[in-house]
Amino acid sequence: MTAPTPRAARWADLTFPDVAALPENTVAVLPTGAIEQHGPHLPLSTDLVTATEVATHAADAVAADGRADVVLLPALAYTKSDEHAWSPGTIWLSWETLMSTLVDIGRSLAGSGITRVLLVNGHGGNAALEQVALRELRRRFGLATFFVPASVGGEVAREHGNPSELGLGIHGGHTETSMMLHLRPELVHMDRAVRRVPERLDRFEVVGFGRPASFGWLSDDFGPDGHVGDPTTAGADDGRALFRAAVDQAARAITEASTFSVT
Amino acid sequence: MTAPTPRAARWADLTFPDVAALPENTVAVLPTGAIEQHGPHLPLSTDLVTATEVATHAADAVAADGRADVVLLPALAYTKSDEHAWSPGTIWLSWETLMSTLVDIGRSLAGSGITRVLLVNGHGGNAALEQVALRELRRRFGLATFFVPASVGGEVAREHGNPSELGLGIHGGHTETSMMLHLRPELVHMDRAVRRVPERLDRFEVVGFGRPASFGWLSDDFGPDGHVGDPTTAGADDGRALFRAAVDQAARAITEASTFSVT
Amino acid sequence: MTAPTPRAARWADLTFPDVAALPENTVAVLPTGAIEQHGPHLPLSTDLVTATEVATHAADAVAADGRADVVLLPALAYTKSDEHAWSPGTIWLSWETLMSTLVDIGRSLAGSGITRVLLVNGHGGNAALEQVALRELRRRFGLATFFVPASVGGEVAREHGNPSELGLGIHGGHTETSMMLHLRPELVHMDRAVRRVPERLDRFEVVGFGRPASFGWLSDDFGPDGHVGDPTTAGADDGRALFRAAVDQAARAITEASTFSVT
Amino acid sequence: MTAPTPRAARWADLTFPDVAALPENTVAVLPTGAIEQHGPHLPLSTDLVTATEVATHAADAVAADGRADVVLLPALAYTKSDEHAWSPGTIWLSWETLMSTLVDIGRSLAGSGITRVLLVNGHGGNAALEQVALRELRRRFGLATFFVPASVGGEVAREHGNPSELGLGIHGGHTETSMMLHLRPELVHMDRAVRRVPERLDRFEVVGFGRPASFGWLSDDFGPDGHVGDPTTAGADDGRALFRAAVDQAARAITEASTFSVT
Amino acid sequence: MTAPTPRAARWADLTFPDVAALPENTVAVLPTGAIEQHGPHLPLSTDLVTATEVATHAADAVAADGRADVVLLPALAYTKSDEHAWSPGTIWLSWETLMSTLVDIGRSLAGSGITRVLLVNGHGGNAALEQVALRELRRRFGLATFFVPASVGGEVAREHGNPSELGLGIHGGHTETSMMLHLRPELVHMDRAVRRVPERLDRFEVVGFGRPASFGWLSDDFGPDGHVGDPTTAGADDGRALFRAAVDQAARAITEASTFSVT
Amino acid sequence: MTAPTPRAARWADLTFPDVAALPENTVAVLPTGAIEQHGPHLPLSTDLVTATEVATHAADAVAADGRADVVLLPALAYTKSDEHAWSPGTIWLSWETLMSTLVDIGRSLAGSGITRVLLVNGHGGNAALEQVALRELRRRFGLATFFVPASVGGEVAREHGNPSELGLGIHGGHTETSMMLHLRPELVHMDRAVRRVPERLDRFEVVGFGRPASFGWLSDDFGPDGHVGDPTTAGADDGRALFRAAVDQAARAITEASTFSVT
Q1: Does E174 have pLDDT greater than 80?
Q2: Nearest residue of E to residue F186, measured between CA atoms
Q3: What is the pLDDT of residues C113-152, one digit of tens each?
Q4: Do B and A have ≥3 inter-chain CB pairs under 8 A?
Q5: Complex-level ipTM beyond the 0.95 threshold
Q6: How far is CA A16 from the centre of its chain?
Q7: Do F89 and E19 touch (CB under 8 A)?
Q8: Which of A16, A87, A129 to mutate to test the interface with C (most CBs of C within 10 A)?
Q9: Between D and F, how many CB-CB pairs are < 8 A?
Q10: Which segments of chain B have a pLDDT < 70?
């Protein structure tokens, strides 16, 4: 980088000699979003907005504190949204295409002298394939690879969540809607928000979300509205708290990634 | 099946008219193992043995009780063991090959009239890609797809685990070694068992196993022995308890899978 | 779209019912950029900036005039920059990955009810493969497909170009540098700009840029600086004129695309 | 192997240091079966049983005699059964998937220090592709590669065959049924066995099985029963003789493979 | 080559030691044709004939003059004719297959000691993908790669063209028909020739052939006859002139390719 | 075809309406050759010449006699010659590329109304993969598919062969050299012909050419000359006899293919 800055370097803004001069152990941060249906009330960009905002705020916070060297990559807008393939608006890559994209990016980063990469992921449907990619990039290019979601669990999730969702607010529900009310309120149509909680899932004890056994699902298995959860209780205050926690989590992930090793 | 039997039908033993006559909603169970290094003390087949034994006992238990119609497929021995690619003995499929295999199997099952499929997985390194496959088979072939690991968490894991592993006994440690001491004691070399717990991981708070942020790893990142955990405390009694819990969990997964729907 | 607006609809901002309600013959506009070295004086994002700005201004102009229905897709940042694979900073997709991405996007658009797609391309290295994609999307999905570069030839190019480049200012030369001085002056390092015109090419009569016979090249065939052309004469005024002409050209392409048919 | 044994080493039972210590020129034996329809009277596993039994008995015989160092790999159950794709019960891999699997296995064996590999194949439909794989593994990994069928021709085949099959007992006929009556009599349904000999093929002189010109066939070209041949004359005595000859042939193939070179 | 000859060496006629002895900087010339519909009046081989004749005459002319060392490869008959996929007679490779073919040929040529390759292309539908291939072969195998069409533009094209085609005689029109009347008159059915000029295209100013914006087309977009242009004015004299100009252009391309470098 | 002819129709010479008018059950004949090293004495085109000449003479003979409707496709020059990849001059396709090519051709033929396809193969290294293709084209496109080699076994082979080759004259030996002395004497360098018979192979009883067990080989396993066999005894008379027998065999294959069915 040509001059010290209070925010994280943007890969896209750099020249190629700037990249060559990045400090050893710089963490390259790649936001991965989605362009996919999120119910009638949320924009297609919901996951892209969330991933990009969390990654950007986290990278800037780390850079501002000097906790680690960090560089922010342009986000992947189009990813693996095959569970929403039925819906107008969804632009989905096949698993082969997304893996190939991640492999190509990893190859390019390694060829640029980068040694540490963190994916900040806004779309749950990418998580499993990105785990596969973490290992592939580590094995083929020697990269230290990391993944953090653009959302949080635990205490904050409970405090600012909607318990009546029964843990089933996985797509376009209270949490995502609240975060968008904080980040892009002009794009949220609360007048179209309806509760869609698949309460029947509670009948099963072993199979289900967060249970030992998982199942393959498409979003229209749950009905024609496309979301799964209860957006009617969403609010910008919950959104702000959830977003700040996610930024903090991502910032700590960047910081730890800069020195992480297992031995 | 031509006649009622006290154990689950074996797909391989059936003729093709037998398959055509399987009852609607029969759950097809596919064990997925691995042939990969498990440290100096465990055989390459550890995950294959575990997955096959858990799936078989579970399917037979379900059939014996008449809880569901179930048919057991031949196990996949060779799977995605790329994290052990460095080691003699590991036979690993690339992610493309394993996905193609699972897609081909799913296509064949759907073409055979099967509508419900459960993977019983003995190798953690397969889990993420199998999640991707669950969705792919659902979308392309309309199959109801399920996944259950051949191991348990929770209470039983705590009671019969080794707390000094700090939750890091992920490969060839106390749990897997105990299960093999129960299932195949003649193949376990306790004289070669050594403790290999990567305690340094405890320094990190956000990145790690079971933490919000994950990392890509190869088993030789942890050292040349190949396992990660403490097999020295393993015992057949713990193994028996862990195995029985895994069988019970898989049996319940089969049962729920036979009637599962989200709406 | 929920309400008339003076600017073009942004796909990412829409909900899925909004997409389903787009008028027949709406032209979906996809900017394709690049993240690749552009010499020591220009940022890696040069082509992404150019494509995105041209596409956005053109789409908004068309929407403002009501010349056609148009919707703007999120840009592709990472594309086929294999000619710059040698350089730090370049993030390049293989031809298979970019074609797969374009095919997946085309499939998704067709599945969303879109019938007309225009690529606005900022990176010359994409042009050939995108021609292949135009036909592939037309054959496989029935889409009417179009391509327009984010730059102009002809009169304007001559008037605002640098004749001493001998027509060889193909990458990071007078034209691209001028456009960036207009669009993102803060990212241009004129102090690092040096003339790099491969005058030797003038010795050949049949083989060369803009000649009947073409040749395969990598940017380091021309030397270690990475650009090909003369940025030292670049200026924001030329950039503004070139940009306005490119926007006008793209706006007319959108308009014609909305009613284009060959019979 | 930690200790001398009267039977061949089982790859799956070894630890990774055991594999690293295998003697130079050890022959790795891979049985390749199939899970595919074999008519109404034979189980889907027919080829898997045959390949596995022949390979195991042959490897053990070689090891017992000390004729060569040999190690037995887990069988491939699922292979290229596309000619039976129409039938319930058939689980078939595409040619790409099977080749990828064989390439991945070959790469892994070479990476384990193995230099000689023998496929013992129970399914005729694999033979051509496995020939392709022999060369691919030799070229890419330097492996000495071999193939032997789990069945015999010549004298024994004539003596224990059924001449009324006119050489057309290629799938589920007298030979395979006899071998299964010897190996797994409990899985053979002789009450369902019917003669299905495509005598029309005898009209052709150049095109046909065992003739200079071959033809592409699917098993349902021959009718809905799925088998081609006459199982009604099958018997366990013929099966035993045919099996013993196949074991002897495979054992000699292993022995020759251990020292084979062309110059 | 075993003896000096007045014509260019034919790769296919050489032995392998002959190839190993080819002079440094020998240009390998690969004609790429097509087998595709060309309207009711022209044979499927039109582009194959044209590419092969142009390449052969050009290579022989260069060899006769001693302008460069040149070797002629067997033509590719089957290429990417997807725009004519609808028509009986068209044999078309997908883009993946043609790229794979070109990559395999490039790899083989580089492995044979060749450093310079020129494609002489008779089928416009190959041009874009061959541009992609030029770069791929340069990057992966270090080959200097070149492309020249088997047709000409400029003065000669104008003089011997049909102006009433409005520049739209792109497939089976005046030019191709004339060349075939010169090269293979016995295969041209002038009695079936009809004018098919898509005059509507003239209404557009930005989108069109030879305009800034291009469009994806299939030949049946223009109607059921398959050709686009006016063959009724074709003649052998025009064909001879066009052919000679194309041969001359290709010969000059070979000559320049033998010494071409950009620095 | 526009007019009856004494020779077989050439696909390439036809127009697309001609193809559409081909009689039902017309056999499409595709010669598959190779461009690969054949020792120091034979041209790279040996297999291409042989396949093309055999196919052409056979098709013309069938057409002349009116035994069947037949159409001759342009030959595949470049095929799977990976066993000669080490040698200058060899142009080899990977197995994926050749299979993709054959699949694309099969798809195109089926789309052209063709129902019967015969491969006439001059290169032994293609045989196994072409067997795989026969089935693939039958399953995917419903084509009746056939394969015949461009050489003969049996009586004629014995009478006009060289017994001192011990059956090992598999590449560039007495037979191929004799056929080329008949077909293209000007391309045969008998002065460079040397005997290269791998007599050591005779020590093995089960593994070998024409034995129950096969092995994977590359031609340089046999030494640096590239051929395997004894060309020194070759003669045009033997070549003529072998060629005529191969033509006769192929003609009978075409004839039988035109009416072949198994039931």
Answers
A1: yes
A2: E13
A3: 999 999 999 999 999 999 999 999 999 999 999 999 999 9
A4: yes
A5: yes
A6: 27
A7: yes
A8: A16
A9: 172
A10: 1-5
Amino acid residing at A182: H
Pairs of CB atoms within 8 A across A/B: 171
d(CA D169, CA B229): 55
Q: Which residues pair with F196 in a beta bridge?
A: F229
In this structure, what DSSP letter does residue F98 have? Answer: H
- Per-residue burial over A230-261, b = 16 or more CB atoms within 10 Å of its CB, e = otherwise: bbbbbbbebbbbbbebbbbbbbbbbbbbbebe
- Identity of the amino acid at F241: A
Q: Tell me how far apart the alpha carbons of residues E112 and F165 are, in angstroms, rounded to a whole number.
A: 30
Handedness of CA D125, D126, D131, D136 (dihedral sign): positive
Q: In what order do the strands lie in the sheet with E70-72?
A: C214-215, E144-149, E116-121, E27-32, E70-72, E9-10
Cβ-defined contact of D104 to B88 (cutoff 8 Å): no
Average pLDDT over every residue of C15-38: 98
Nearest to D76 by CA among D61, D92, D96: D92
Task: Look at the alpha carbons of A91, A96, A97, A99 in this order and tell me if their dihedral is positive or negative.
Answer: positive
CA distance B157 to B179: 12
Tokens, residue D134: 């022999």
- Asked if C201 and E262 count as a contact pair (C-beta separation under 8 A), the reply is yes
Q: Is the dihedral of CA A213, A216, A218, A224 positive or negative?
A: negative
**Radius of gyration from C-alpha coordinates of chain E:** 19
Residue C209 burial (CB count, 10 A): 15
- Please count the other Cβ atoms lying within 10 Å of the Cβ belonging to residue E110: 16
Q: How far apart are CA A46 and CA A177, in angstroms?
A: 9
Strands C27-32 and C116-121: parallel
pLDDT, tens digit, 9 for 90 and up, residues F189-229? 999 999 999 999 999 999 999 999 999 999 999 999 999 99
> With contacts defined as CB-CB under 8 Å, which chain E residues touch C95?
99, 132, 136
Q: How much is the pLDDT for B147? A: 98
Q: Of how many residues is chain C composed?
A: 263
The closest CB to that of D37, out of B16, B37, B97, belongs to B16
**Neighbour count for residue A186 (Cβ, 10 Å):** 7
Rounded distance between C-alpha atoms, residue E261 and residue E146, angstroms: 11
Looking at the complex, report in whole angstroms how far the Cα of residue B181 sits from the nearest Cα belonging to chain D.
Answer: 14
Measure in Å the smallest separation between the Cα of B181 and chain A Cα atoms.
24
Buried b (16+ CB within 10 A) or exposed e, D209-241: eebbbbbbbbbebbeebbbbbbbbbbbbebbbb
Q: Cβ distance D240 to D181 under 8 Å?
A: no
Q: What mean pLDDT is reported for chain B?
A: 96
- Which residue does chain B place closest to A245, by CA atoms? B212
Place of tokens 């002319």: E61
pLDDT digits (tens, 9 = 90+) for D99-151: 999 999 999 999 999 999 999 999 999 999 999 999 999 999 999 999 999 99
> Which stretches of F85-236 are assigned E, i.e. beta strand?
116-121, 144-149, 214-215
Q: What are phi and psi of B70, to 5 degrees?
A: -145, 145
CA distance, residue C244 to nearest chain E CA (Å): 15
Query: Tokens representing C47?
Result: 């082509």
- Report angle CA D60, D62, D68 to the nearest 5 degrees: 130
Closest Cβ opposite residue A99 in set B95, B146, B223: B95
- Does position F127 have pLDDT exceeding 70, yes or no? yes
| Contact: E213, C83; criterion CB under 8 Å | no
Distance CA A27, CA B214 (A): 15
Alpha-helical (H) ranges within F69-173 are 95-111, 127-141, 154-159
The whole-angstrom separation of Cα C215 and Cα C203 is 15
The torsion region of residue C109 among left (phi > 0), alpha (psi -120 to 50) and beta comes to alpha
Q: Domains (ranges, CATH) in chain D? A: 9-257 (3.40.50.10310)
Contact (CB, 8 A) for E164 and E157: no
